[in-house]
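Holo prediction. Input below; ligand is adenosine-5'-triphosphate.
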Amino acid sequence: MKVLVYGGSFDPPHIGHIRSVQVAAAALEPDQILLIPAAEPPHKALSKASPPAAERLAMAELAAGEIPGCQASDVELERSGPSYTSDTLRQLRQRYPAAELIFLMGTDMLLTLEDWHEPETILSLASAAVFARETGREREIEAAAARLRQRYGATVYVLSGEPVRVSSTQVRALLPARRGRELVPESVYGYIIQKRLYGAKPDFDWLREKAYAYLKPGRVPHVQGTEAEARSLAARWGVDVDDAAEAAIVHDITKKCSYDEQLCLCEKYGIIPDACQLASEKLLHSLTGGPFAAERFGIPEHIVQAVRWHTTGRPAMTDLQRIVYLADYIEPNRHGFSGLAELRQAAYEDLDAAMDLALRMSLAEVREKGRQPHEDTVTAQQYYEKRLKERGVPPVAWTPEADQD
Ligand code: ATP
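Structure of the complex:
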C-alpha cells in the first residue's frame, strides 16, 4: 500500500497544489492521498490575512474533492505547537504500519529539507517526491535528491511534468482585486467568496453566472440592464461602481421564489414581514434577496441594505441605495410608462428630485392597481419632497395622466 502525504499551509489551496498531486498520483499510483494543512507551519509564518485553521481545512477538503482517492486530514490541526512533519509521519506510520508513505513537496521544500526539524526521521519514515514549481531548476533538484539519497539512504522520486507557476501568496494578493479565480479550484473559489476570506471580492463573471442561475431566463436582460444603469449612475454620483454592480446583479435573486418559499426564507433569516409585505410577493423578494445573496456570495451589509430597499425605498437612503432603486426603475429595458423619460433625466441631474419622482410614480402605480402602498414608500416620498423644498429645488413636473413615454 502507498499513501501520498501532501503537507502545506494551503492558505488557500491552488491549482499548483492540485497539479502536483495529479502528477504524483499518475506517476506513483498511491492507494490513498492525504492533504494535511499545517496548524502552525514551522517554515514560514502564516500571513496576517490567513483565516483560522478550520477554514484552511475546509478548503483543503474541497480541493481534495477534485482529486480521486484524495482526502484532507486534520492530523496536524489536532496537535499544538509547530506542525513538524516528523511528528505527522510518526502518527501516520502508526496508522499505516506497512504502507510506503511518500511525502510530496515542491522545489522550495526539497531544497531546504535538511534544515527541517528531524530530517533524518522524515526520510526514514517516508519516501520523498518532488514536483518542481518552476522550470530551469532541474539540475538543482537532481543534485538535492542525490544528496538526500546518499546521506540518508532516502528514496526520492523526482517527478516530471509541466510546472504551474502559482503560489498562495500570489492568490491572496489577487483576491481582493476580484482576480485569481482561475488559480484556485472552482469549489475553493466559491468558499472563499462566500466567506470573503482574504478580503476577497467576487470576479464579476463568476457572480453573474451564479446569480443568474437563480433567475427565470426572461429576467436576465433586466438584471443586466440594471447593472449597466447602476454602474453609470454610480460613476455619475461618485459612488463605488463595483458595489453598485454587485447590488444590481443580486437585487432580484429571490424574485423567482414562490410565496411559500419567500415565507420559508423569511423564517430562515429571522425576518418578520408586516401585513403589507405579507400581501405582496414583490415586497417579500426585497426582504429576502439580501440575506440570500449574503449567505451564498458573502455580500456585505451595505449591499444587503441596497437590495433591502430597492422596492419600497425609505427616508434618508444612502446614495448606493438610491442608485440601485433608480437603476431598477430606469434601466434600458424599461419602456412604455408615464414619467420614464423625466425620471431618466432626473436620475443624472439630482438624486433627491429623482427619488421624489420615482416614489410618486410608484405610489400612483400601486394605487391604480387598487392596492395600499407600503408605508415606507409613503414616508420616503414625503421625506424627499421635504428635502427638495428645503433645498429650494422644484419637483419634476409629472402627473399620472402625463403622456406615455
Ligand atoms: P505561500 O505562497 O503562502 O508560501 P505556497 O503556494 O508555497 O504558499 P504551501 O501550502 O505552503 O503553498 O505549499 C505546500 C506544498 O506545495 C509545498 O511542498 C510547496 O512546495 C508545494 N507547492 C506550492 N505551490 C506549488 C506549485 N505551484 N507547484 C508545485 N508545488 C507547489
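The beta strands are 2-8, 32-37, 70-72, 100-106, 126-131, 156-159. That is the main takeaway for now.
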